[in-house]
Amino acid sequence: MGFNSVYPVSGQTYSRKVDYYTLSVLSGIAQSAYKFSNDIRLLSHLKEVEEPFESTQVGSSAMAYKRNPMRSERIASLARYVTVDALNPALTTSAQWLERTLDDSANRRISIPEAFLSVDAILSLYINIASGLNVYPKVIEKHLNEELPFMATENILMYSVKKGGDRQALHERIRLHSMEAVKKIKMDGCKNDLISRISADKAFNVTEDELNNLMRAEGFTGRAKEQTEEFLSEVRTLLDANKELLGVDVNITV
Question: Would 9 be classed as within a structural domain?
Fold first, then answer.
């Protein structure tokens, strides 16, 4: 009949494992989208990012001030369905008798189309969120500065040891100062004063200027910038090779 290839071993039907391979791909898309949606929801809680929000959108039926990430929540819901749906062809494949039974027909006519429809909806939501995502650098900077003193303690310790300090003794001093700073933050809602505590502790033999230099945020990112740029260069190669598929505009109303 002119087909380029055929299944080498088949009877009345092709192996239902083909259905499993197909839904496994869709499940993989759903899993990645699920993680993306969860990350957006967590960052939205921190007010660091926000998905598109319509001028008349209601974020909560009870609390009018809320701006719930409803698109991401919908992705999570559909992605969970697709991930579980991938079990259908796996069970159908494993339950085939000597050659074929008819118990696969009704199941596959539901599970396969619904998986494709769900992934189509997931990707539409994905595009809509990515196209209109709002990022709030000032909030990110605020959160970073709140945690940076704790992140810098190892560098401060090594710096002080190089200047002649006793590592074990300084480690204990940092532990005590850190515990006190955390206590003030949690119990009294105070700002993180760990650096001030270390600066005032003569055992460390460091000035406030030296501490500020040790706390430069770019000193804690490793190769993150380069890795991101390398990854994006590969993505751009794929995008350039598929330009005819780009420019999809998806309007979602929630």
Answer: no
Is 73 strand, coil or helix? helix
Task: Check whether residue 84 and residue 117 sit in a common domain.
Answer: yes
Can you tell me the distance from the alpha carbon of 58 to that of 62, in angstroms, rounded to the nearest whole number? 10
- What is each CA distance from 37 to 18, 71, 72, 246, in whole angstroms? 29, 8, 5, 22
Based on the fold, state whether residues 104 and 173 are members of the same structural domain: no
Could you tell me if 241 and 175 lie in one domain?
Answer: no
* DSSP bridge pairs for 54: none
253 lies in some domain: no
Q: Counting Cβ atoms within 10 Å, is residue 189 exposed (0-12), middle (13-18) or buried (19+)?
A: exposed
Residues forming a β-bridge with 134: 50
Tell me the CATH number at 190. Answer: 1.10.40.30
Question: What's this model's pTM, rounded to 2 decimal places?
Answer: 0.82
Instruction: Express each pLDDT in 188-236 by its tens digit.
Output: 999 999 999 999 999 999 988 899 889 888 889 899 999 999 999 999 9
Quote the pLDDT of residue 165: 93
Residue 145 lies in a domain: no
Residue 110 is given by DSSP the state H
Flag whether 76 is in a domain.
yes
Exposure on the CB side of residue 97, measured as CA atoms within 13 A? 5
What is the largest distance, in Å, between two alpha-carbon atoms of the chain? 87
* Centroid of chain to Cα 163: 41
Question: Which DSSP state fits 135?
Answer: E
Q: What angle do CA 23, 120, 66 make, to 5 degrees?
A: 120
pLDDT tens readout for residues 187-200? 999 999 999 999 99
Phi, then psi, of 49 in degrees rounded to 5:
-135, 165
